[in-house]
Amino acid sequence: MEPASPDPGEQPWSIRLRAAGLRVTQPRLAVLDVVDSAPHLSADQITAGVRSAIGAVSTQAIYDALNTLTEQGILRRFEPAGSSMRFEVSVGDNHHHLVCRSCGSVRDVPCALGSMPCAIPQETEGFVVDEAEVTYWGLCADCVSASTPE
Ligand SMILES: [Zn+2]
Ligand SMILES: [Zn+2]
């Protein structure tokens, strides 16, 4: 484990953007606020949230912000099969995701096996593995109870 460093999630977004060498722009700040307040949103949902927060912003500006923030490791992007991309603030905790096959809801679960990469295949073919992304599929509690007769 790395020695504990100050949690970058506690810093104001502008500090975090500058630390990554990024200009602080209103769309970037708004995207971060929206994703931080509700993890696992799709780009469309983020676009709607940003517009209701700061008014007219082009879809392109929001997608550019999402791409840049993901490339810089400030956001984490994942894409459950058959679903749209979802975004969350990256906290480096290597958590995994539970995805409901019925309603598409997503929950975080801590990794069962420790820090990144939590699982290494028996044969890596010369790859240096640094991350294992795990999606657990099933039915969420609401969908289970909805499908179970009383
Ligand atoms: Zn469900
Ligand atoms: Zn998550």
Task: Describe the secondary structure blueprint for this structure.
Blueprint: H1 13-19, H2 26-37, E1 41-42, H3 43-54, H4 59-71, E2 75-78, E3 86-89, E4 96-100, E5 106-109, E6 135-138, H5 141-147
Parallel strand pairs: 4-6
Antiparallel strand pairs: 1-3, 2-3, 4-5
Helix pairs in contact: 2-3, 3-4
Bound molecules: zinc ion (ZN) (2 copies).
One zinc ion binds next to helix 5.
Name the descriptors.
150 residues; alpha+beta; Arc Repressor Mutant, subunit A; Dna Ligase, domain 1; 2 domains; 3-stranded antiparallel sheet; 5 helices; disordered N terminus; binds zinc ion
Report on this structure.
With 150 residues, this protein is α+β, with helices and mostly antiparallel strands. The protein folds into two domains: 1-90, Arc Repressor Mutant, subunit A (Orthogonal Bundle); 93-150, Dna Ligase, domain 1 (2-Layer Sandwich). It is 34% helix and 15% strand. The chain has five helices and six strands, in the order ααβααβββββα. The chain has helices at residues 13-19, 26-37, 43-54, 59-71, 141-147, and strands at residues 41-42, 75-78, 86-89, 96-100, 106-109, 135-138. Strands 1-3-2 form a three-stranded antiparallel β-sheet. A hairpin with a 7-residue loop joins β2 (75-78) and β3. α2 (26-37) crosses α3 and α3 (43-54) packs across α4 (59-71). The longest helix has 13 residues, at 59-71. The protein is flat. The relative contact order is 0.12. Mean pLDDT is 87; it is low at 1-6. The structure holds zinc ion (2 copies). One zinc ion (ZN) is lined by residues 39-40, 88, 95, 97, 108.
